């Protein structure tokens, strides 16, 4: 199953590609004239500003397919030929459900467990797109004590929980860099 949908303008047409196992495969070639309408619709679904075409934007939306809720993360990115849109498909029913299933080496699993139980410490979750950073972070947060102070920082995702302080670093950095 595809993990991402990429919608990219070229000089001749609008190209749609799907990411399967980390590789982008061509799927559709559409007329270039529908590019603005397609991008606008996706931006509306994702809660992005449709009139902002000069800056990258991130958003999200959900839909129900059959009896399952599927989440989508949307990113728009300005290019010389127009906005490129990437949609990450997130199926909450698939994937890892517990810390034990993360595949950590025994030594690393013990370190994570000890840090979660500790009054002090930090766990950094890093890696390339699609490697499971958000899944790992959510599982770690879920396993941590609710009577401790937990903070979550991300460049693309905000975690909604009554026990977590969450901040989007991309927005914070762009605001501080622009002087506003």
């Amino acid at each position: 199953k595809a993990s991402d949908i990429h919608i990219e303008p070229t000089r001749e047409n609008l190209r749609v590609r799907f990411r399967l196992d980390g590789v982008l495969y061509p799927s559709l070639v559409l007329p270039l004239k529908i590019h603005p309408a397609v991008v606008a619709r996706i931006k509306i679904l994702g809660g992005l500003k449709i009139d902002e075409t000069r800056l990258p934007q991130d958003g999200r939306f959900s839909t129900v397919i059959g009896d399952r809720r599927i989440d989508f993360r949307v990113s728009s990115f300005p290019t010389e030929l127009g906005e490129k849109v990437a949609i990450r498909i997130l199926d909450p029913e698939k994937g890892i459900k517990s810390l034990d299933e993360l595949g950590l080496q025994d030594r690393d699993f013990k370190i994570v467990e000890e840090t979660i139980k500790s009054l002090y410490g930090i766990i950094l979750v890093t890696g390339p797109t699609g490697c499971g950073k958000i899944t790992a972070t959510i599982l770690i947060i879920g396993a941590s004590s609710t009577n401790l102070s937990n903070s979550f920082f991300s460049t693309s995702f905000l975690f909604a929980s009554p026990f977590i302080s969450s901040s989007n670093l991309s927005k914070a950095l762009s605001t501080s860099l622009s002087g506003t």
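The mean pLDDT is 83. The chain has four helices and eight strands.
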